[in-house]
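One thing: mind reviewing this one?
=====
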Amino acid sequence: MKLAPLRPRKVVQISTATAGDGSGEVIFALCDDGTMWERAYVASEDDFTWFKIETPPETTNKGPNMKIAAQIKEFVTAKNALSLSCMDDSDLYDWLDAKAGGELDHVQMGIALDVARREIGKHLKTQAA
């Protein structure tokens, strides 16, 4: 049996977050073949390692991660968008974690950071217009 050659994956969306314990950075990548990968950087080991996330986040409007996105949209308002835009990812991570009651895992936090940055941008754009 002849196998088809593997084609390289292409990253279609990427999100970063500081690890909750501050030990390094976590990068999440969604690829064009539907797979999701996590790349953790541990400063003490100076090593990047990719791990496939076996259960990618829900993408339907009924999924738990869409609920998180809806909550983040409520947290980021026109009133706080400017101050939130001044935060680096670590501070924004802590703010979102506190708003969510500390219940988000790394994948959910990556989604929350991505949604928060988009919402902040939308509010700032609206205010500038």
About this structure: The first strand starts at residue 11 and ends at 18. Residues 119 and 125 are 10 Å apart (CA to CA).
